[in-house]
Every structure is written in structure tokens, then in C-alpha cells.
Amino acid sequence: MGNKQTTFTDEQLEAFQDCTFFTRKEILRLHSRYRELAPHLVPLDYTNNPDIRVPLALIVTMPELKENPFRDRIVETFSEDGQGNLSFNDFVDMFSALCETSPRELKTIYAFKIYDFNRDNFICKDDLQQTLTLLTKGELTEDEVLLVCDKALEEADLDGDSKLSFSDFQNMISKAPDFLSNFHIRI
Amino acid sequence: MIGKRRDGDGEKKKRKKRRRKGAHRAEEGEDEVQTRHERREREKRRRAKNDQEAKGRERDEEERVQTTSGKVAKTKKNIRNENTRRRVEEEEVEVEERLEKRKKKHGSAKKEEKKEDEGKQMVKEKEREVKKKKHKKVDSKDEEMRPECLTPEELEKLKEAVDERKKLIQSLRGKPWPMKKKLVTLRESQEFVEKYEGALGKGKGRKLYAYKVMMTKKWMKFQRDFENFKTACIPWEMKIKEIESHFGSSVASYFIFLRWMYGINMILFGLTFGLVMVPEALMGRPYGSMPRKTVPRSEETSAMDFAVLWDFGGYAQYSVLFYGFYNNQRAIGWLKFRMPLSYFLVGVGTVAYSYMVVIRTMARNANESGVGDDNSFNFSWKMFTSWDYLIGNPETADNKFASITTSFKEAILEEQESHKDDNIHLTRFLRVLANFLVLCCLAGSGYLIYFVVRRSQKFALDGLENHTWWERNEVNMVMSLLGMFCPMLFDVISTLENYHPRVALQWQLGRIFALFLGNLYTFIIALMDEINLKREEEKIVKFNITTWEASLYNGTISENSTAPSITINPADVPRGPCWETMVGQEFVRLIISDTMTTYITLLIGDFLRAVLVRFLNYCWCWDLEAGFPSYSEFDVSGNVLGLIFNQGMIWMGAFYAPCLPALNVLRLHVSMYLQCWAVMCCNVPQERVFKASGSNNFYMAMLLVILFLSTLPAIYTIVTIPPSFDCGPFSGKNRMFDVIHETLESDFPAWFSKVFSYASNPGLVLPFILLMVLAIYYLQSTSKSYRQANVELKKKLQTVI
């Protein structure tokens, strides 16, 4: 990897390194992955910050996201327009928040946003049901789904409003032993 | 036209343009500006009441940041009046404080009320900003003069603002803002810091301050380059990623563990190679110059045979690879390198380094995994943390879906029925029986090893040539075979017990651990017997040497009174049995045979099985792939245990055979490639995917125990057994650690040894130990009280609704 690359200026790379958990080489690699998704759309030269967005349908074909049941929600959460169309900034942001060195607090905030399907800043029963259906691919019966959602709400809801606010969610996740290792995408 | 833009982007751009065209703005009427602000305020409030409430708040914060910097820049440039300047400073401090407060409350739920306040404040600030703009004139000279006119308090506040900006830049990565906002904030903060940092260092401290700032910048740049370099150096990243996407995080954790071990072994290799083997090879006496460095006459003919070399005899034995080659000369070469001291310190250093690394990793893991009672959030955790985001392979994903569904169904079942006791007496009886069987197994294997070692000693006395290959390598083969078959036996026995799979896994791991430990210690006990035998032999040899020397001089007694020095070929000198080299050789042989067994098991157990299942399936009655043999799964726990015990053996033997870390590095390197290939080629993802909870720290804890247990025998031999008289760097001393005493006396100034003798006085050491025990007791009691306070707070949280 020589120093001669014309994709980004040095200031841009330094700025990216300050704002994400990636190193210079990783950012360049991310850019080539981003470009692979839509080579005719994404220019090679990013020095003048072109405003290009890759649509949701292309992003979820990435091998890292393809098998994930929550892929649509993940991409929507990190997109600026809320529809899932990611600019390169959003793309880098997404993988930086989900990378290994990202801290627990940051991951908790984004996990909450991802599981909040209707984006009302609460995980209500409906959100829980949707999560469970995606997770089990519809294998559980109606009754079982309701039971699980009720139990989960009972366990985690501390203020008793029958939906999970961010602090409830945070309290519950902070003790989970698997959260950090499972909520992690390597790119 | 401005009011129509709903895009946050557009608004930011507009703001920037506004600031740049400030001069023109001054011409515009105040009213127009005011109305535009008001409109924007109204519009913003309207937008804020949509779904994007959180985003609006974030935008506010960013604008706040922008306005602060803008304000400071503009106002500082233009205000000459003392009063207005002071007002500006106060406002700036207010804003900064608000910024601080808001940052602290960032994650809170009370967003709505704050919004309103902020909206009002925004309006006020905008008005002020507009007023200031009227007096604006960009004058660079003013900037230069500005800081000198500021009073010390204002300087302090400015400094605080700059520091705060710097902290913001540092913490930018962890903020949950969209990337664009982060980039904009970063650029502005950097501009702010740059502008005012130079200005801050006024008067006497100016040059020093500027120098400090420059050095900090250079240091940060160096750190960043170093981080980049370090991540580029990490090997096998792509391989592990592939395995992760196919098999999930639990299988990949084994390979990550392997890579971490490889790193540790590289450092140990560096220590032993650089400080022990290389100096002796370069600066010590060469091969053949001394009796200890030469192959004895009797063994010369067979010294180059492959069989002998493979057994680490012959030329391999009389080389830097083993303890016996090293000379006990105090300082060698032109560097005056203290060889014996270096040997001893490297031995101690490898153990100390290993302890440090393991404990540090354990502490880090303990912080991350958090304190948790496992059952309080069962369903929530299953819902939110069970999906493994690393999976990228459709087959693995299907397996994962299936296992998640199964685990939900099990949890639901458990929830619905209260525990069906179902003949608890039978279960208890079966469990006791299972444990009894396991104990019998362990005792049996321990006795078998002892018996085999005794037999191999008898064979050695008879002369090794009379026996078959099996009989010569009996000990190692038996140990490896036991390590292979007993775990399977334990698995079968555990079906009697009927535990929950997670509990069963922990029992299994515990039993395998006990098995390996028992085997290792039996081996060591047998080794100790051999050491004692060799020491007896040594006494005899010492006696014989005096008679032999006498016989040499007998022939020349007719010569002058001064006995001429008789040159004798070192190969002919009778040699003492060097027990240290023997110990080193035993360990090396054990590790080699262990490695071979692992690889052969891998090839036969996994690869051959996969080939058979694949190709015989075409002509077999039942479906081999789904039915009986099928493809094997990767046994994570078994492999991890094997790795841990292998490392234990390295730690045990490294003092007597400096070549062991090098051997291990090679072994781990090959293992990595071989096992990566085998996993991808012959294994299928696990059907039941679950982890022993907190297993990361479980493996680290085992590693720590093994480290402790494996350094015990080495320490025992160093402290109690006198070294051989004619081989190794400590020959001639009473005990090996005497070298430290000698160094203290001869190499350090006189007061040093006096200080040390005071420090090692029991009157000082005992109170110190007592103090440490008290400190441990105190820390433990405080941690207990913290835990209780935790429980109390949790209860309070539950009751507050």
C-alpha cells in the first residue's frame, strides 16, 4: 500500500481516523468495498465529497449483512434519510459503530435504535414481536410469541410503562455477557 | 427561500455562507435578519416536533457548538470596548457551561423540556450575534494583539475552552452522531483550537507553550501511525474472519486464542533466543573446546544418525539447545556478557512476563463481561443478544436460526412447567455413580503412566538398543493416547448424569482438566525419581574422575615437579550424567510426540472421516452424512485445553531447554494453518450453538492455574537440588540462585549489597508480608460492601415506579 492514492486527501483521511475507530488502510479498504456495491454510481475520486448514496437493496447484498435478520433495520438506522440509502460517510459510520473496538455505550445506543422498529424512542410490544419474528423466522406460534414478549417486558421494564425506554434497555444490556461479542461485525 | 429548506445540510451550509459573507450582512437591515432568524426558529421548532426529535436535539447541540465558536471568533475580533468584551466572555462561559451540562445529560430521557429552553436560548444568542456582526471588520492585526489585552481570568477561560475542544475531538469517535455532523464538529473544533492555542501562550511562557503544543501534536501523530502499523502487523485476520462467518464466534474464539498464544510465545522466543542462545553461540567457547561441549567418545559414531537426532541426542544434545552446553564462566566475550546471570534472569523473566500478560488479560475480560446474575434477564438476553452478527454463511445462519428457536422453546417449556422432580433419587444416584466412575478412570490413568515411566527406566538401564520403537517411546505415546481417549469416555459417562448442556460442558471441561493435570504431575514425579538416580550416578562419576586423573598423572611422575599440562581430547573425559539436560530432553520429546499425535488425530479423525463419508455415501445403505459418522464438529473446548496444557509444558521445561519457546512458535505457526484448513474443509457448524457462559475468563483462569502449577516444579528444582558439577551455567555452585548473590557482591557497589542484606532480613520481610495480608483483607471487605450496596440499589430501582 503506497502513499499514492487519489481517493481521499490526507486531511480527509485524518478526519475519518479521528471520527471512527478505523485506521487509514481500513478506510481505504472500506471505500473499495463501498465502490464494489455500485461501481457505476460511486466515483473513485472522493476528494471533493460527492453526494452519492447507495440504495438499501444493494447494501444488504454485502456478505457481512446478507444473512443478518436485522439487516434492513441496521442500514436504515445509519442512513441519514431514514430510508436506508447510505452515503459513504454513513457507510463508514455504520461499520465503525459495529466494529470490535467500539465501546459498549456506543453499541448500546445503536442497538436500541436498531430494535426500535417504529422509531418512537421506545421499544414497545410491537417492536418486540417484530424482533422475535425475524429472529425465529416465524417458527414460533402466536401464543409463544406473546408469552416471550410479555416475559421480556416483565424482566426489563423498570418504570412500568409496558415499553422499554433507553435506560431500561441499557440496564438490561449492560449485564449481558454475550452482547459485546455478538453485536460485532468484522469488515 | 431560506425558510423552505428542510434539509439540515442546507441549513448548515447556509450558516457557513452567512459567516463568510459577514461583511455584506452588516449592510442588511437588522429587521430583515431578525425576521429571518425568527422564521428559522419557528421552522426549527416545527420540525423538531416531528419524529426526528432526537435528531433535532443533536442538531441544536451542533449549532450551539457552531454558534459558540462563531461568536467567540467574531466577537473577539471586533470588540474593543472593555465592557462588551467582558460581557462576551461571560456569555461564552455560560455557553460552555451549558455545553458541559448538555453533554452530561445527553443520554437522558428528558428531551422535550430541554428543547424548549434551548430554543429560547438560541433565539437570544442569535440576536446577540446579529448585533455584534454590525461592528465587524476582519482585521488580522487585531487578532494578534487581542490576547495580550485579555485579563488573566479571561485567559483562563479561553484556555478552558480550548481544552474542552481538545477533549471533544478526542471523544468524537464514541459519539452517536451521524458522520457528517462529526466531521463538521471536528473541523470547527480543530480550527478553534488552532486559532487560539497559539494565542494562548502569551508573555513569558509563550515559546515553551508553543513548543509543548507542537510536541503533543507530533506525539499524537506518532501514536496514530504506530496504531496503524500495529493493526497492519496482526496476522491471519482474513482467515479468522472467514472462519467467523462460517462457524460463528465460538469456534473463531479458539483461533483468536491461538493467535494470542502465538504472540506470547514470540516474545518468550525473543527473550530466550536473544539473551541466552545467541550470546553463547557467538561469544562462548566453541563446540569441542570443553568436555561439556563435546560429544563423548562412546557416542561419537552414532551422533549424526537421524534417529538419534530426532530423539534430541547426539549433536543436538551438545548444542545451545540444551542446558548442558552452557559454560559457567562468569563473563564471556568482549562485552563481558554475564552468561549465568542472564540465563537465570531470563528464566525468571519468562515466568514473570507470562503472569503479567495473563492477569492483565483476565482483568480486561472481567471488566467487559460485567457482574451478572444469569437468570434475571433470560428472555430479554435471548431476544437481543443471541444473534451472532458475525455470521455470513447461509448454512451457519440456518443452524443459528434453528438453535435460537430451540432455545426459545426450551425456555418457554421451563417457564410453563414447574420443575418436574421426576424421581430425584434416581438422578442423584446416577450422578454419584458417574463421578465414581470418573474417579476410577483418573486413578487408573495416573497409575498407568507411573507404571510406564518405571518400565522405561528399566529399559534405559538395559540399554535402549534392545527394545522396539514402541518400548522406547512408551511414555509419550501412552500419555498422548490417554489424552485422546479418556475425554471420549468422560463424554459417555456424562450421559448418565442428565445435566443441562451448559452445566454438562463445565463438568466435562473440569474432568479433562483434572485428567491432564494428573498425567502431568505423575510424569513429573517419575522424572524426579530419575533425577535422583542421576544424582547418585554423579557421585560415583565424581569419584571415578579423581581416580582417572590420578592414573593420567601417574605416567608422568618421573618428569619435573611441576606437572606438565597434558592435553586430553575433551571427548575422552569421563562425563557426569547431566540431569538438567535429561529433563530438558524429556520435555522436548513429550512436546514433539504430543504435536505429532494431535496432527495425526486431526488427519485421521477429521479428514479421513470426511473423505470416507463423502465418497462412501454413494454406495452405502444409510445416509452417512446425516446418520452415524457424518462430518465431525470442531471441538472448541478440547482444543483450547490442549493448547493450554501444551503451554504449561513449555513453561515447565523452558528453564532446562532454551529451545522450547522456539519449538513452540514453530508448532503454533503450523497448527494455525493446518487447523484453519481442516476446519474449513472437514468440519460442519455446530448444531447446538451455545457457549459456556463467561468462558473467556474461564479459559484464562485455567491458564493462570496451569502457569502456577507448572512453575512450581521448576522452582522446586532450582531451590533444592544442587546443579551438576560439570555441565550448565551454574556448575560448581551450591545452588542455582547463588549466581544472584555473586553478582550483587562483585558487580554492584558495596552499599547495594548492604541495602539488600538489610532488605532480606526476616525482621523486615515478615512485617511486610503481614502488611500485604492486611491490605488484601481490607480490599476484600470493601468489595463485599460494594456488592451489597449494589444489591440494595438494584432493589430500590425495582420498587421505584
Automatic annotation (TrEMBL), chain A:
Keyword Magnesium set for record: yes
Ranges of residues in domain EF-hand: 103-138, 144-179
Any single Gene Ontology cellular-component annotation: photoreceptor outer segment
Keyword field contains Membrane: yes
GO BP term (any one): calcium ion homeostasis
CDD domains: EFh (cd00051)
UniProt xrefs under Pfam families: EF-hand_7 (PF13499)
Molecular function terms from GO: calcium ion binding; magnesium ion binding
Keywords (A to Z) from UniProt: Calcium, Cell membrane, Cell projection, Cytoplasm, Magnesium, Membrane, Metal-binding, Repeat
Subcellular location: Cell membrane, Sarcolemma; Cell projection, Cilium, Photoreceptor outer segment; Cell projection, Stereocilium; Cytoplasm
PANTHER family: CALCIUM AND INTEGRIN BINDING FAMILY MEMBER 2 (PTHR45791), CALCIUM AND INTEGRIN-BINDING FAMILY MEMBER 2 (PTHR45791:SF5)
Protein name per its UniProtKB record: Calcium and integrin-binding family member 2
Annotated source species: Amphiprion ocellaris
Lineage per the UniProt record: Eukaryota, Metazoa, Chordata, Craniata, Vertebrata
Automatic annotation (TrEMBL), chain B:
Keywords per UniProt: Membrane, Transmembrane, Transmembrane helix
KW Cell inner membrane (keyword) present: no
Subcellular location: Membrane
Membrane topology: Multi-pass membrane protein
Membrane-spanning parts: 260-283, 340-359, 432-453, 474-496, 508-528, 698-719, 755-779
Coarse class of the protein's main subcellular location: membrane
Record's keyword annotation contains Transmembrane helix: yes
GO molecular function, one term: mechanosensitive monoatomic ion channel activity
Biased composition (Basic residues): 13-23
Domain TMC span(s) in chain numbering: 578-693
Superkingdom field: Eukaryota
Region (Disordered): 1-145
GO cellular component: plasma membrane
Compositionally biased spans, kind Basic and acidic residues: 1-12, 49-65, 79-89, 109-130
A biological process term (GO) from this entry: vestibular reflex
Family affiliation: Belongs to the TMC family.
Protein name: Transmembrane channel-like protein
Source organism: Amphiprion ocellaris
